[in-house]
Design goal:
There is one protein chain. The chain is of the alpha/beta class and about 400 residues long. It contains 13 helices and 13 strands. The chain has helices at about 15-25, 45, 50-55, 70-80, 100-110, 125-130, 150-155, 180-190, 250-260, 265-275, 280-300, 330-340, 370-385; strands spanning about 30, 90-95, 115-120, 135-140, 160-165, 195-200, 225-230, 240-245, 310, 320-325, 345, 345, 355-360. It has a 7-stranded mixed beta sheet with strand order 2-8-7-6-5-3-4, with helices on both faces. α5 packs parallel to α6 and α12 crosses α13 (about 370-385). The radius of gyration is 21 Å and the shape is globular. It starts with 14 loop residues before the first helix and ends with a helix.
Length: about 400
């Protein structure tokens, strides 16, 4: 029988399951790989589940864009934390995670063959979604500190460009973009009549007094698409709830995509999200504070690798992105770290970095002592493998 091909053959395979299988086959490995948090959802999220169960109509389909109670609560959060006002020019759509929000956006604003600008290193699921939509990724390198290069972004725009994507705080680098840089990108996009897609899944994870800034607050709602997630800050990874703020003129197109793929976001998860938004402020402060302590432990250990690795200052998310001074293939290095030193990280190639050996180190999923052991294994492993 003749082999059938599809567009999916041109899409990279997700790296997390690949590394996960290597870790599974090497018992005792500490994972510094997947980007999740160590803590559970707030009790308020669980306390809202009986409200869902008490109403039999909740077993039926609900509005494509999300239940009204959650939409109202999200509007309040967006105004208070992000400075984004929901008005007649924009609207909220609840999604099954912010990855789905990104896919919704790409399908709504493009035709096959259109271009989307990603800054490298990029988030691999963004690159995959663009390829799935039959569009072309245009890569623009960030500077030596992984900050945006506004002039390079402007020069990369062509008549086929439909959007520029920014992620701040950033996955995989952990850097936070300045308000000035985000404003400049936002102005470039609105001036050229293209969209600025702002991924803000790590909005609460900032350190050393650095503040998160939302481009959706700049006033150019006609060309700004903002993506948010409950997965990180509220420990909601498997609940699959995110949301997007979109220009009102995209609402019909986004609803077509979401109704086809999902129909409506899982209603039980929406109730849990409604509860999570009522969590006390101490919930985020204490949990993110604990991650900040782990971050410092990780950073102190990584600083011992000076000369062996380049480590860029990162005041956001829960990642460090290392450039290892070696000619070794990044994935081969990852395999050896797992098999020989029992520590798992993610190769930089999956984030579009092919000009050297890069590793993403994630520290959000671990308690301090486990993280300390994991990062010691990483430091020792890199010293052993690379120096020898």
């Amino acid at each position: 029988m003749e082999s059938l091909t599809s567009r999916m053959q041109g899409v990279q395979s997700p790296i997390i399951p690949v590394v996960g299988e290597l870790i599974k086959n090497s018992p005792g490995t500490i994972s510094l790989g997947q980007g999740v948090v160590y803590y559970d959802p707030p009790p308020e999220a669980i306390e809202f589940l009986p409200k869902f169960l008490s109403e039999s109509a909740n077993n039926l389909y609900k509005p494509v864009e999300g239940i009204p109670l959650l939409l109202v609560a999200l509007a309040g959060k967006l105004q208070a934390f992000n400075g984004i006002e929901i008005n007649e020019e924009n609207c909220i759509v609840v999604t099954a995670g912010s990855n789905m929000g990104f896919m919704n956006a790409i399908l709504a604003i493009t035709n096959p063959g259109d271009e989307i600008i990603l800054n490298t290193p990029y988030y691999f699921n963004h690159e995959m979604a663009i390829a799935m939509a039959g569009c072309r990724v245009v890569l623009v390198a960030t500077d030596e500190n992984y900050q945006l290069r506004k002039e390079a972004i402007a020069q990369a725009i062509t008549p086929k460009t439909r959007a520029v994507v920014t992620i701040s705080p950033n996955n995989p680098t952990g850097v936070v973009y300045s308000e000035a840089a985000l404003r400049q990108v936002n102005q470039i996009c609105s001036g050229r009549g293209i969209y600025h897609i702002s991924d803000e899944a790590y909005e609460y994870f900032t350190y050393n007094g650095v503040k998160h800034v939302s481009p959706g607050a700049f006033g150019s709602s006609k060309y700004t698409i903002s993506l948010f997630s409950f997965s990180k800050a509220y420990g909601f990874a498997s609940w699959r709830i995110g949301y997007m703020v979109i220009p009102k003129h995209l609402f019909v197109s986004i609803k077509k995509v979401q109704d086809t793929i999902l129909i409506c976001p899982p209603v039980i998860s929406q109730y849990a999200a409604l509860g999570a938004l009522q969590a006390k402020v101490e919930y985020l402060q204490s949990n993110i504070g604990a991650i900040a302590q782990v971050r410092q432990v990780v950073l102190d250990s990584l600083n011992r690798l000076e000369g062996l690795c380049s480590i860029t200052s990162a005041n956001g998310a829960f990642y460090f992105f290392l450039k290892v001074n070696t000619q070794m293939d990044a994935f081969e290095l990852v395999k050896r770290l797992i098999q020989e030193h029992k520590v798992g990280v993610i190769p930089g190639t999956t984030f579009g970095m092919d000009d050297g050996c890069y590793l993403r180190v994630a520290y959000g999923a671990l308690q301090k002592e486990t993280a300390k052991e994991g990062i010691e294994r990483l430091v020792q492993g890199l010293e052993t493998i690379v120096r020898n």
